[in-house]
Amino acid sequence: MLFRHSGIYILAKFIPGLMAFAALSFYTHLLSPDEYGVYTLIFTGTVFLHNVIFNWLPAGTLRYWSNQEFSKIQFLSTLSMSYLRITLVLSVITILGIVYYWGRPQVSWILNSFFLLIALALFTMTQNLYSAKIEPSKYAFLTISYSICALLFGVIFAYMGFGATGVISGIAIGTFIPAIVVFKNTWLPFKKTSYSKQLIKRLLTYGLPLAAAALVEE
Length: 218
Fold this sequence. Notes:
The protein is mostly helical.
C-alpha cells in the first residue's frame, strides 16, 4: 500500500512538472516578449494573492482534518462558507477595480486575475482535502487533469492570438474544470448551519502566520 501510494503521488508530481516545462516552451514561442512579461506578472501576482488570502484554508485542512475533532460536514461546511465569503468580498473589490480602470488594459488584467484566483483557491482546497483524507488516486486525478487542461487551454488561447490575458483565461478554465468535475461529490454535502466558528478560529490561528510569511517572503 505504501509503495502504491508513493507511486501515485510521484506520478502526480512528475506529469505536472512535465506540463510546466512544456508550457514554458509553448508560451515563449507563442507570446511576444512584452506579452510574456504581462503573463508572468499576472500569474505570479495571482499566485501571491492566493497564498496570502486563501492558502490558510487548505493549510489548515492538512493540519486539522485527521484530528477528527470536527465532523466531516462541519469541516466541509466551514471551508465552503469561508471560500464563498472571501470570493464575495473579492468580487466587490474586482468590480471597483474594473470601474476605476474602465477603458484601460488593466480591466482585462484584473478580471482574469480574479477568475484565476478563485479557480486556484477551489482547486487547492480540493487537492489538499484529498491529501488530508489520504485519497491518492483522487489527488492524482485532480492534479494531473489540472496540469493538462491548464496547458491545453492556455496554448489554444495563445495560438488564437488572445495574448497574455488569453493564456491566463485558459489556465483559469483548465484549473476550474477538474475542480468542478469532482465538486458535487466533494463539496456539495455542506450546510450553512454546520459552519463552525471554533474550527474557523483554529484554521485562522494556524494559517494566518503562514499567510504573513508568504507576504514577507514575497
